[in-house]
Specification:
The structure is a homodimer of 114-residue chains.
Chain A (H helix, E strand, L loop, with lengths): L4 H9 L2 H10 L6 H5 L6 H13 L3 E3 L8 E3 L2 H11 L2 H26 L1
Antiparallel strand pairs in A: 1-2
Helix pairs in contact in A: 1-4, 1-5
The first copy, chain A, binds a DNA duplex (30 and 30 nucleotides) through helix 4.
Amino acid sequence: MATDQLSLTFSALADPTRRAILTRLAFGETSVKELAQPFKMTLPAISKHLKVLERAGLVARGRDAQWRPCRLEAKPLEEVADWVEQYRRFWEERLDRLEDYLRELQAQEKNSDV
Amino acid sequence: MATDQLSLTFSALADPTRRAILTRLAFGETSVKELAQPFKMTLPAISKHLKVLERAGLVARGRDAQWRPCRLEAKPLEEVADWVEQYRRFWEERLDRLEDYLRELQAQEKNSDV
DNA sequence: GTTGTAATTTACCAACAGGTTAATTAACCA
DNA sequence: TGGTTAATTAACCTGTTGGTAAATTACAAC
């Protein structure tokens, strides 16, 4: 896999389990066991997912006795937001054309009213 | 790999070659051969990358004689933008705290002026 | 029809991803 | 000390990714 930051971030986000973990972490720091709770997979699997997220800089982990509390680190998502914003005009373009078309329809309706 | 749309999109974007292809396509429709031009990999490799992008709905292809012109389809990026926006407050948080701190500093300076 | 060009398909390969079970580390508790 | 809990590591398996070279398809131009 490519190792540039953006590729690391995108590929970390390309898994629904990992995105769900981030969603959970948005509500606050928690343990690995509690993170694993909602999923029907083993703890080592979750551990691996966390390692991927950590390598991408999306989570950081502390130490509290035998717990490794995980917390969200959203900073890498800024680069994602910036990258994708470049393309906004392209996905809004079609909508613009639709709006043009609807305006045109409206104009025609007005004409037929007269 | 997961097959939900968002996972498909993220994983398509997790490769620098594919992102570069999308960047190129933002300047307009073009052939596979021309897309391959800047990369030091074979045409079949580019063909595969295009297939990944196509499966993610990020490019569409036409036919013109023996050419398969590719064009950007940015719509799936909207979901990416929406997803990542949920986290904006988290990566801006630290900045907010910095701003608070700077405001506090300013207040202190005012006091010391008096 | 033959030749040239664009692109894909096929067959293959090495590396990696995502999961498992079993063993291990580390800390707490009593 | 021994037992429990949290989490990771190790070893392994299977399917997928990202690349290649060679063959094939499809079209155009002569």
